[in-house]
Amino acid sequence: MSVVATLLYWISLLVIFYTYVGYGILMWVWAIFKRKKSALSVENDASLPAVTILIPAYNEAGVIGAKIRNSLELNYPRRLCTVFVITDGSTDGSPDIARAFPQVHLVHEPVRLGKAVAINKAMESITTPLVVLTDANTLLSSDSIRLLVSHFKNPRIGAVSGEKKLLVAENSGLGEQGEGLYWKYESFLKKNDALVGTLVGAAGELFSFKRELFQPLEPDTILDDFVLSLRICAKGFKVAYEPGALALERGSLSISEEQTRKIRIAAGGFQAMSRLPGLMRFKKHPLLTFQYFSHRVLRWTLAPALLPILLAVNLFLVVNDASVWYRVTLLAQTVFYFSAGIGWLGARNNTKWPIVFIPYYFLFMNWAVFLGYSRFLSGKQSGIWEKSERIPFPVND
């Protein structure tokens, strides 16, 4: 029995370490040995391709005006840039605000069918070679489109993801602070993923792709950006990363709003894995499969499941008089979970307590995976996106 427990202990420990730490270190070291290529700058406006900025929106009256103004003021020739807004079932006046801008192409769908359906509908009318998909509640940095477009000079690039940048204030809520911490780590992984091979999942806040590579999404798709970008990878193209193309956004209003968002993402992750079996064909695309499995599959499956198993078998080994190593790791786990518990007490009052916040947020995200898996199995997670409440983004009229 102790042999089985020991084996399970080491498997759990190594998988957990690799998923959350080891893979990041491996890709960082690997990226050092890759020849870094900077994005190609395009100085001549005559050589720039035509693009369509696609903005799906549902009840975004509070931000859609600022979003459209921001899109029209980007540093890209107006004659080459079309702004396309599709208001999916909006009932708050968003379509009327969009209509106030004669430069905008608006499609209003009176019945709310979800973001995936809205994107499919919009793509039927878009004719430009490049499409830039961006959320209504983000503001783009001035040179974003130029920076994204520069990557398409490489014919192997099928899509380019920008960088989601959360504006976290000192007095921000716990959900916003936790999301900001998570995205710093994700940005580190994305940078190295792209240098080594390709991104395995784009940021829907700012994502550009070749129109010819678009494959209509299933109406109930939860993570449209993830599925769309990985299907492009499966066709043999790469998804590049452009950290200079910024999509500025505020975080979740509270930790409960952040939990709702994380559960939805987890449910969408399981849905996406069930619909992308081809990405696990190692012989066909070994590097893509390795990155996808290490960065996404393990994080959504084995690693969260092994966390309680590691604690249980570690306790079993110590009770059965194991070596000092197992006693030390059990103590470390005890301190970690105790700290997370203290962090949880602070979270109940939307308060971030230093040090203990990190283990709390780590467990918070993994607990959301379990809840997301339950949602996926029960079919209760709708493809119609759930708009999370976010801290207002101050803009000047």
Rg over alpha carbons: 22 Å
Strand content: 5-15%
CATH superfamily: Spore Coat Polysaccharide Biosynthesis Protein SpsA, Chain A
Extended strand count: 8
Average pLDDT rating = 88
* Overall tally of structural domains: 1
Order of strands, main sheet, comes to 3-2-1-4-7-6-8-5
- CATH architecture designation: Alpha-Beta Complex
- Oligomer designation: single chain
- Could you tell me the CATH topology label: Spore Coat Polysaccharide Biosynthesis Protein SpsA, Chain A
Distance between the termini: 69 Å
Largest sheet data: 8 strands, mixed
Low-confidence stretches: 390-397
State the helicity in percent bands: 40-55%
Order of helices and strands: HEHEHEHEEHEHEHEHHHHH
Number of helices: 12
Shape: globular
CATH class identity: Alpha Beta
Structural class: alpha/beta
